[in-house]
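Thread amino acids onto this structure.
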C-alpha cells in the first residue's frame, strides 16, 4: 500500500499517537483502508512522518485493542474486516456535519489523562511474546472466576508493601475496572442499602448507583476530605470515598477523620466503606498515608485499578472483599466469569513479578513530579491565584479570585483553545468555596506544553 500521510498537530495538546490512531481508524471506517491491507512497519512510518517508533507503537496498539487491526507475529499489522465491527456505525458523517464539529483544544488539562508516551512498550511486548510462546495452550480455558491466582498473588504482595493492605489472594476479585466491579458490590449489599458519595465527586459512581436504582446521598467534602458530621446525620449505610487524593478537590482525608469514618462504619453491621484508592501511587511530599483498609479490614471494601499506573485501555481493576462478604459473594455469584482476558492477566503477572511494574512506577513518579514542578513554578507567583491538591495525584485545583465567575473563566480559556474543568461540574450540592475552583490535570501534556499552556491561560484570565 502507499505510505500513509496524515496531518498531525505537533504543538497541540493532543498526543501525536492519539491523533495518528484516530486518523487511521477513520480511514478504516470510511473504507479507504480495506480488509487485509498491511499497515507500514513502525520504522518506515516513523521515518516518513518523522515520529518515534514508540509513537507508532502506541497508535497501532490502540487500533489492535479496539479490533480495527490485528498483529500477526513476524509479519506486521493488518486491517480487519470492517463488517465485523458491528458496534461502529458505518455511515460516514455528512461533510456539513464534519465541518461543524468542535475543533480540538490545543491544551487539554483533563484530570483523568496520563502520560502514555512513557509506557515501557518494549518490556510489555517482550512479556506478551513470552506468554504466547510458552503458555498459549493454557490460556485457552476460562480460568478462575475471580481472576488468575498468579496475578492475585502479585496484587496481594504489592498491596501489602505499598498500601499496608493485608489480604489473601482469595479475597481479591479481578475485573475490567471499577465501573464493572462496583455493580457486583451493589448487588451483594442488597436493594435497601443507601449509599453515600463524595460531593464534589466522581460522576460515574453516581450514575452506576442510579442505573441500578440505588439511593445515593451526596456528602460534602472540604479541604480535609469528607465532612464526617454530615455523614453521621445522613441515612447512609455504605460510604464511597477516595481518601488518598479526593477526586476532584485534591484533598487528602485527614488521619483524625479516617478514624471517625471507621468508627462510623463499626457502629452498625449494615455499614461499610468502599475505599477507591484513587491516585494513591503518586505522592510527592511526605510519607504515604496508609489506606483505610490497613486500619480496618473488616468494614472496608478496597477498590483500585491499573488505569493511572499503567494505561486506561488495559482495563484491569480489582477489589478486596472482607471475608464475610467474600463468602456471600462466592455463594451468590457462582456464574461469574472474570471479564479480563487471561492473556492480559498473564502479561501483567510477569510484568509485576519481574519488577517492571515497580520500575515503571518509580520512573513515572519522577516524570510526574517534574511536570508538577512546572505547574507550581508557572503559577506560584501569579496574583489572585491559589493552588491546592499538589501533594499527590495527577491534577491540582486552582482557586481564582480575580472577580470572574467559573463560567467566564472556562469561556476565556476555551476562546484561547485551552480546556480546563470547573469544580462545579462534579458537584450536586452548592459549593461552599469563596472563589471559583478550576480542576487542572497535568499528566498528559509535555513540560513545554505545560509552560506554554499555563502562560496563555494566565493571560486569558487577565491575571498579569
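Threaded sequence (464 positions):
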Amino acid at each position: 500500500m502507499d505510505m500513509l500521510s496524515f496531518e498531525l498537530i505537533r504543538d497541540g495538546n493532543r498526543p501525536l499517537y492519539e491523533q495518528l490512531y484516530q486518523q487511521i481508524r477513520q480511514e478504516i471506517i470510511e473504507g479507504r483502508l480495506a480488509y487485509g491491507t498491511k499497515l507500514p512497519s513502525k520504522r518506515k512510518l516513523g521515518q516518513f512522518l518523522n515520529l518515534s517508533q514508540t509513537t507508532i507503537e502506541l497508535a497501532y496498539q490502540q487500533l489492535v485493542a479496539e479490533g480495527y487491526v490485528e498483529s500477526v507475529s513476524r509479519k506486521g499489522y493488518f486491517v480487519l474486516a470492517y463488517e465485523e465491527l458491528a458496534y461502529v456505525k458505518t455511515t460516514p458523517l455528512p461533510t456539513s456535519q464534519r465541518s461543524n464539529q468542535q475543533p480540538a483544544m490545543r491544551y487539554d488539562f483533563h484530570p483523568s489523562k496520563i502520560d502514555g508516551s512513557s509506557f515501557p512498550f518494549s518490556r510489555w511486548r517482550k512479556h506478551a511474546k513470552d506468554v504466547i510462546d510458552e503458555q498459549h495452550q493454557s490460556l485457552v480455558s476460562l480460568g478462575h472466576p475471580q481472576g488468575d491466582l498468579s496475578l492475585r498473588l502479585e496484587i496481594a504482595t504489592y498491596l501489602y508493601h505499598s498500601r499496608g493492605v493485608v489480604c489473601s489472594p482469595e479475597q481479591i476479585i479481578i475485573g475490567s475496572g471499577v465501573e464493572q466491579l462496583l455493580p457486583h458490590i451493589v448487588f451483594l449489599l442488597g436493594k435497601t442499602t443507601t449509599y453515600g458519595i463524595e460531593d464534589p465527586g466522581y460522576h460515574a459512581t453516581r450514575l452506576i448507583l442510579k442505573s441500578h436504582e440505588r439511593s445515593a446521598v451526596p456528602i460534602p467534602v472540604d479541604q480535609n476530605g469528607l465532612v464526617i458530621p454530615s455523614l453521621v446525620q445522613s441515612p447512609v449505610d455504605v460510604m464511597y470515598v477516595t481518601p488518598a487524593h479526593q477526586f476532584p478537590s485534591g484533598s487528602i482525608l485527614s488521619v483524625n477523620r479516617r478514624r471517625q469514618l471507621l468508627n462510623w462504619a463499626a457502629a452498625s453491621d449494615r455499614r461499610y466503606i468502599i475505599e477507591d484508592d484513587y491516585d494513591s501511587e503518586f505522592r510527592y511530599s511526605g510519607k504515604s498515608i496508609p489506606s483505610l483498609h490497613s486500619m480496618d479490614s473488616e468494614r472496608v471494601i478496597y477498590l483500585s485499578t491499573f488505569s493511572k499506573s499503567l494505561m486506561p485501555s488495559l482495563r484491569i481493576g480489582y477489589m478486596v472483599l472482607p471475608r464475610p462478604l467474600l463468602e456471600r459473594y462466592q455463594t451468590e455469584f457462582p456464574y461469574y466469569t472474570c471479564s479480563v482476558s487471561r492473556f492480559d492477566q498473564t502479561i501483567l503477572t510477569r510484568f509485576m513479578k519481574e519488577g517492571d511494574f515497580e520500575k515503571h512506577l518509580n520512573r513515572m513518579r519522577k516524570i510526574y513530579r517534574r511536570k508538577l514542578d512546572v505547574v507550581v513554578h508557572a503559577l506560584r507567583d501569579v496574583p489572585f491565584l491559589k493552588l491546592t491538591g499538589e501533594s499527590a495525584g495527577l491534577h491540582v485545583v486552582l482557586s481564582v479570585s480575580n472577580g470572574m465567575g467559573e463560567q467566564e473563566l472556562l469561556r476565556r480559556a476555551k476562546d484561547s483553545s485551552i480546556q480546563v474543568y470547573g469544580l462545579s461540574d462534579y458537584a450536586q450540592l452548592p459549593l461552599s468555596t469563596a472563589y471559583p475552583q478550576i480542576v487542572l490535570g497535568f499528566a498528559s501534556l509535555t513540560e513545554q506544553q505545560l509552560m506554554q499552556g499555563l502562560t496563555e491561560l494566565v493571560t486569558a484570565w487577565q491575571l498579569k
